[in-house]
Amino acid sequence: MIIVHHLNDSRSQRVLWLLEELGLEYEVRRYQRDPETMLAPPELKAIHPLGKSPVIEDQGIKVAETGAIFDYLLNTDGQGRLRPPADTEEARRFTYWMYYAEGSAMTPLLLRLIFAQIPARVPFIARPIANGISRGMNARLIQPQLDNHLGYWESELARSEWFAGDQFTAADIMMSFPLEAAAARAGAGGKPHIAAFLQRIHARPAYQRAIDRGGPYSYA
């Protein structure tokens, strides 16, 4: 059976969702973030040297990194599901969004999260300066980049209901995390196609089953 090393409020939630969409049996081994630092617990270091999640184990094979896990599961158990036929425009879009989701999309979201946490992590006397730096970086650098990505997602979802075309694919699962994080924390209001995408994925039974298995999920 596939074992998923699952960290709460993390991108590993997408692995549970993919497994549910594929109808595969799996076991969830839970790890909780430190409530003060929000970092993964040291126990994950015993699973992978970086101490990160997600990691899966399948018949003695260990796979880390969300994109690599998706490739592994689709290649071993997908049977052609959740990906477009090869050598099509949809397949090229699928490949792009699979890589983009963890590359270009996550960079400004992570920067926003990091700079938002800086004021609380410096001595009290330095917090006014830290607040100023944080607000300035967000206003001048980070939020403009996020707005650019948000506009891009909105225009792409205006082309088709799903990122790779008219059919739901694993690329939509990969893209779910940046869209959910942006909607929750980065001002994605006024984007009807993004809002409709999120409504569609949240209504999928496999998505809901994955939430039940993974536990509360706040798009951290």
What does this 3D model show about the protein?
With 220 residues, the protein is α+β, with helices and mostly antiparallel strands. Helix content is 53%, strand content 9%. It has 8 helices and 4 strands. The protein has a 4-stranded mixed β-sheet with strand order 2-1-3-4, with helices on one face. Strand 3 and strand 4 form a beta hairpin. Helix 4 packs antiparallel against helix 5. It is globular, with a radius of gyration of 18 Å. The two termini are 28 Å apart.
Short structural description:
The protein is an alpha+beta fold. Helix content is 53%, strand content 9%.
Task: Give the helix/strand layout.
Layout: E1 2-7, H1 13-22, E2 26-31, E3 55-58, E4 61-64, H2 66-77, H3 89-100, H4 106-117, H5 127-159, H6 170-185, H7 192-202, H8 205-214
Parallel strand pairs: 1-2
Antiparallel strand pairs: 1-3, 3-4
What descriptive keywords fit this protein?
220 residues, alpha+beta, 4-stranded mixed sheet
Helix percentage range: 40-55%
What share of residues are in beta strands?
5-15%
Number of E strands: 4
Overall structural class, as computed from helix and strand content, comes to alpha+beta
Main sheet strand line-up: 2-1-3-4
Radius of gyration: 18 Å
- The H-and-E topology, N to C, reads as EHEEEHHHHHHH
CA(first)-CA(last) distance: 28 Å
Shape: globular
Uncertain runs are none
Number of helices: 8
- Mean of pLDDT: 90
Query: Biggest β-sheet, characterized?
Result: 4 strands, mixed
